[in-house]
Automatic annotation (TrEMBL):
E.C. no: 3.4.11.9
Similarity remark: Belongs to the peptidase M24B family.
Domain Peptidase M24 C-terminal positions: 539-597
Gene Ontology MF terms in the entry: metal ion binding; metalloaminopeptidase activity
Protein name: Xaa-Pro aminopeptidase
GO cellular component assignments: cytoplasm
CDD domains according to UniProt: APP
Keywords: Aminopeptidase, Hydrolase, Metal-binding, Protease
InterPro entries to which the protein is assigned, alphabetical: Creatin/AminoP/Spt16_N (IPR029149), Creatinase/aminopeptidase-like (IPR036005), Creatinase_N (IPR000587), Pept_M24 (IPR000994), Pept_M24B (IPR033740), Peptidase_M24_C (IPR032416), X-Pro_aminopeptidase_P (IPR050422)
PANTHER family found in the cross-reference section: XAA-PRO AMINOPEPTIDASE 1
Residues annotated as domain Peptidase M24: 310-528
Length: 597
């Protein structure tokens, strides 16, 4: 099955054997992770789509792939339209499409370990209107026809030292126990991998670029816990770190052990726990409370040690990026660079710090028209030369023990057009407006999103992604619950109040299809501000990322005095923080880049 067409046919043949009239294939694992291990890349294997968010629906005579605005261009380049219908989310949904295309009386399969209970209920209702049924499968039919499916990682767990975590695992479990007692609950099921890593102060290598281990956990109201992880992943130092209050079991025992919670009041997170977990708890006779599990907000509110670690990580990462930008200023005009060679060089600069553990995601290295693909992932087939008189967009980050970074810069190679400079300046003005925002406690991300879009909206432009996402501490580069994005009917994160201690990205952009892309991204920390007469605690953002913003793309005369002052102040901080780490020509270059406008 060397072609995706053959793989689709093999799946259809398997569905016939399984007496199913369709099947739904998400990018997901048993933990509702955004980024998943190779074994769970079922959608990529089936369709060729390399994005991080998408779903496919396969019927005997039709198939569709569903992606949001970040992947509108990418999905059409990677997935064959002769076999797959392109469907745009949220304009439509898998449930809506199935209700229109499934056969009357059809049996549509789904893997209950890869979907939320809410999705199952929605799809069940939609199919019922068609006279069709949603059927949970015991064995995923994609796995049955994937002959060389990778095995899950067997990498060892490692201890995440308290000097980086800022709080012991025992303290965290006690806080969870107190939370449970306040809700008269006996236990909480943790299935999100970053929640488990954070709770137990452990890390792993089971998911590319996210230092987590495949595991489940149940934390009880007496602060003890059951941790389910493959036995070969445990080491003596991890067992000693976990202590006697944490009982370790094989990961394979998790599903059956949920029966032991019979008669208990158990919290399970409806956004993070898959449908199968709720079904197992219901079957066991547990009383299930569908609540957001308590680690989510606690993990987002960084403690002083984590904040200090982020600042240290950003300082070294900003120097690595600045060295790369200097290198690009010399090498790119010569010609000969490609998206892959530039991304490899940027990684070299980060590795030279001696502290890089991994990238925080696959570097988005987009030259010219590839920069217009928001979440573009370069490979040998798509690798494009970085040409003169074009824009190059690079979105990248590093994983360090003390912090996770994420930064985007847009680089002109040769002479940018007047349109490019105008669009860049509008994106910059939006970035500055958000960076300078002062807002009362209780403000949601959706209420701030317009600040970043206003200058694009003024000329009929926009971008099809959120403006900001949360970031973890040596954890997930995309971390909830906070976001800065358009409100989408209460979409998770956009209605989460921002609190001091949260870290988010500030990343407005503009993308001209088939021509170029622009994005300016820094990470910011929510902090308390002093304001005389304020009736609610004012909050604002402290910028954490320090690397020069390309001045050749700025139409300076369109900036207000306050915007010019922000740029000059920002570049002065870049020079103060990054400058001492550079030397020679690189430092001279940085000084020129950071000179007042």
């Amino acid at each position: 099955m060397s072609t995706h067409e053959a793989r689709l046919q093999a799946l259809r043949d398997q569905l016939k054997r399984d007496r199913l009239d369709g099947f739904v294939v998400p990018i997901c694992d048993e933990h509702m992770s955004e980024y998943v291990g190779e074994y769970a890349q079922r959608l990529a294997w089936l369709t060729g789509f390399q994005g991080s968010a998408g779903v496919a629906a396969v019927l005997p005579e039709a198939a569709a792939i569903f992606t949001d605005g970040r992947y509108t261009l990418q999905v059409r380049e990677q997935v064959n339209g002769a076999q797959w219908q392109y469907q745009d989310v949220p304009q439509t949904s898998v449930a809506e499409w199935l209700s229109e295309h499934a056969s009357d009386g059809g049996r549509i399969g789904y893997d209950p370990w890869l979907h939320t209970r809410a999705w199952v209920q929605q799809a069940t209702r939609a199919l019922a209107e068609r006279g069709a049924a949603l059927v949970a499968v015991e064995t995923n039919p994609v796995d049955a026809v994937w002959p060389d499916q990778p095995a899950p990682s067997d990498a060892k767990l490692v201890v995440h030292d308290e000097r980086y975590a800022g709080k012991s695992a025992g303290e965290k479990r006690q806080e969870i126990a107190d939370w449970l007692q306040g809700r008269k609950a006996d236990a909480v099921v943790l299935s999100a991998l970053d929640s488990i890593a954070w709770t137990f102060n452990v890390r792993g290598q089971d998911v590319s670029h996210t230092p987590v281990a495949l595991a489940y956990a149940v934390v009880h109201d007496d602060a003890t816990a059951d941790l389910y992880v493959a036995t070969e992943k445990m080491a003596d130092d991890v067992a000693q770190h976990l202590g006697n209050a944490v009982r370790v079991h094989d990961r394979a025992a998790f599903a059956s052990d949920l029966a032991k919670l019979r008669g208990k009041t158990v919290v399970a997170d409806p956004e993070r726990a898959v449908s199968a977990i709720f079904s197992k708890l219901d079957k066991a006779g547990a009383k299930t409370l569908a609540l957001r599990e308590p680690t989510v907000l606690a993990k987002a509110l960084k403690n002083p040690v984590e904040i200090a670690g982020h600042r240290a990580a950003q300082t070294r990462d900003g120097a690595a990026l600045s060295r790369f930008l200097h290198w690009m200023s010399i090498e790119a005009p010569k010609g000969g660079l490609t998206e892959l060679s530039a991304a490899a060089k940027l990684r070299e600069f980060r590795e030279a710090t001696g502290l890089l553990k991994d990238l925080s995601f696959d570097t988005i290295s987009g030259a010219g028209p590839n920069g217009a693909i928001c979440h573009y992932k370069v490979d040998e087939a798509s690798n494009r030369p970085i040409e003169i008189d074009s824009l190059y967009l690079v979105d990248s980050g590093g994983q360090y023990l003390d912090g996770t970074t994420d930064v985007t810069r847009t680089i002109p190679v040769g002479t940018p057009t007047a349109e490019m400079r105008d669009r860049f300046t509008r994106v910059l003005k939006g970035h500055i407006a958000l960076a300078r925002a002062i807002f009362p406690a209780g403000t949601r991300g959706s209420q701030l999103d317009t600040l970043a879009r206003q200058y694009l909206w003024a000329v009929g432009l926009d971008y099809a992604h959120g403006t900001g996402h949360g970031v973890g501490s040596f954890l997930a580069v995309h971390e909830g619950p906070q976001r800065i994005a358009k409100s989408a009917g209460g979409q998770a994160g956009t209605e989460e109040p921002l609190h001091a201690g949260m870290i988010l990205s500030n990343e407005p952009g503009y993308y001209k299809a088939h021509e170029y892309g622009i994005r300016i991204e820094n990470l910011v920390l929510v902090v308390e501000r002093d304001m005389a007469g304020a009736e609610a605690q004012p909050l604002g953002f402290e910028t954490l990322t320090f690397a020069p913003i390309e001045r050749r793309l700025i139409v300076t005369e369109t900036l207000s005095p306050a915007e010019r002052a922000w740029i000059d102040d920002y570049h002065a901080e870049v020079l103060r923080i990054v400058g001492p780490q550079l030397e020679g020509d690189a430092k001279v270059w940085l000084e020129a880049q950071c000179a007042p406008l």
